């Protein structure tokens, strides 16, 4: 009997050991001294919880319970030893004084991590003071993006709410295979440069099921973006889904294979926009698909602008070198608040090529909408309203 007991207790022990090895480790920020009172600086406790999770041999979770946590600029650095999840039930708030984040460029920066998930949570960057500073033309800091993934492979941002970022809300830069899903972004219509989601230098990013109301682009797509999929996006107010501005620099990478589908724009300044500087460049745009889109009172539902040159500085009498090729607009319907609902203003030195319009129906109040074409070639299929100028 005694022997049998020993055998079963050994068995039990080894099972327990096995369990603890395979079970994910959890690191609660409260155990590292974070205070959910919205006033105590919890930056160091968050970084310590991250460091422990990142060192874990088992898959690890940094857990942020309900409550408000005051967080200053923080860099969550990899590589980590295993899969890592940041599960947030609380709200992260930035300091009231915008200078506290303002010189860092980033508020929450995740860098060089593979298999990273950020789940849930609310980020309140309290951007209003920073915007007011910029609008008053005073001496202001450079500002901070709210959450950035830099060199993240196999990443996920899910169920996040971001409000009032100083600059861009969510940035995916130099990443591979990142999913952004069910995020909610909110900032006032007139807040400057508060893009909702910015993707750049990244391959295989998907953005789905997200609602974006902000003062700049809902989604902005920068150089070096490849295989981007966007679906079920609600945009507006905001400046639309924008490829560009591209071609600011001479040596610049292009954007290719981008799809936006099943999305709605409401009261946005632009819908589907491609924007290029009137400067020589190696940048290009190719294989872009806009499909099944509803426009509700959008100023410029469809626009290609290759003459971007804010304040007419830096591009005197130049034309855009960005080569725009194979862009399809299919099943785009709804209302424009301006008469020219479709604008294709392409470069005289690099005309747009392979533009396809397929079943477009955009109206302007109760009157006829119009199209504008310059330096463009393409084809149409199905019903096209306003009448095509291709
Ligand atoms: C284009 O991107 C999608 C993802 O959005 C991907 O599934 C597809 O393979 C890509 N096509 C090419 C030719 O790379």
UniProtKB/TrEMBL annotation:
Q: Which SMART domains does the protein's record reference?
A: PbH1
Pfam families from the entry? Glyco_hydro_28
Question: Would you indicate the residue range of the signal peptide?
Answer: 1-24
Which GO terms are recorded in the biological process aspect for this UniProt protein? carbohydrate metabolic process; cell wall organization
**Catalytic residues in the record:** 239
Molecular function via GO: polygalacturonase activity
Keywords on record: Cell wall, Cell wall biogenesis/degradation, Glycosidase, Hydrolase, Secreted, Signal
Gene3D superfamilies referenced in this protein's UniProt entry, alphabetically: Single-stranded right-handed beta-helix, Pectin lyase-like
Location relative to the cell = Secreted, Cell wall
Principal place of residence: secreted
Q: Which InterPro entries match?
A: Glyco_hydro_28, PbH1, Pectin_lyas_fold, Pectin_lyase_fold/virulence
Q: Which family does it belong to?
A: Belongs to the glycosyl hydrolase 28 family.
The cross-references to PANTHER family, in alphabetical order and at most eight, read: PTHR31375
What is the name of the protein in this document? Polygalacturonase-like
């Amino acid at each position: 009997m005694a022997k049998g007991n020993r055998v079963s207790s050994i068995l039990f022990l080894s099972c327990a050991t096995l369990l603890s090895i395979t079970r994910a480790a959890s690191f609660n920020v409260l155990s590292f001294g974070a205070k959910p009172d919205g006033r105590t600086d919890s930056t160091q406790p968050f970084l310590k919880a991250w460091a422990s999770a990142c060192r874990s041999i088992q898959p690890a979770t940094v857990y942020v319970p309900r409550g408000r946590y005051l967080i200053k600029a923080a860099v969550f650095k990899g590589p980590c030893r295993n899969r890592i999840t940041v599960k947030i039930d609380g709200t992260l708030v930035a300091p009231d004084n915008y200078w506290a984040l303002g010189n860092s460029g980033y508020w929450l920066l995740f860098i060089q991590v593979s298999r990273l998930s950020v789940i849930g949570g609310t980020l309140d960057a309290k951007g209003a003071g920073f915007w007011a500073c910029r609008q008053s033309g005073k001496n202001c800091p450079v500002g901070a993006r709210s959450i950035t993934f830099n060199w993240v492979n196999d990443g996920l941002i899910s169920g996040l709410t971001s409000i009032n970022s100083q600059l861009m809300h969510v940035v995916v830069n130099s990443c591979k295979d990142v999913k952004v899903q069910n995020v909610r972004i909110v900032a006032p219509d007139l807040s400057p440069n508060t893009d909702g989601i910015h993707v750049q230098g990244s391959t295989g990013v998907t953005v789905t099921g997200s609602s974006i109301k902000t003062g700049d682009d809902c989604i902005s797509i920068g150089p070096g973006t490849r295989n981007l999929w966007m679906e079920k996006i609600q945009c507006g107010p905001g400046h639309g889904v924008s490829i560009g501005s591209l071609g600011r620099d001479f040596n610049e990478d292009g954007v290719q294979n981008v799809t936006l589908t099943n999305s709605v724009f409401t009261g946005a300044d632009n819908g589907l926009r491609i924007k290029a500087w009137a400067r020589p460049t190696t940048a290009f745009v190719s294989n872009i698909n806009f499909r099944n889109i509803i426009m509700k009172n959008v100023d410029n539902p469809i626009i290609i602008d290759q003459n971007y040159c804010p304040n007419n500085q830096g591009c005197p009498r130049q034309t855009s070198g960005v080569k725009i090729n194979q862009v399809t607009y299919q099943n785009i319907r709804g209302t424009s608040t301006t008469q020219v609902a479709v604008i294709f203003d392409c470069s005289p030195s690099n005309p747009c090529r392979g533009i396809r319009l397929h079943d477009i129906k955009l109206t302007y109040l109760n009157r006829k909408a119009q199209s504008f074409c310059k330096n463009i070639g393409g084809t149409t299929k199905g019903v096209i309203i306003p009448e095509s100028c291709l």
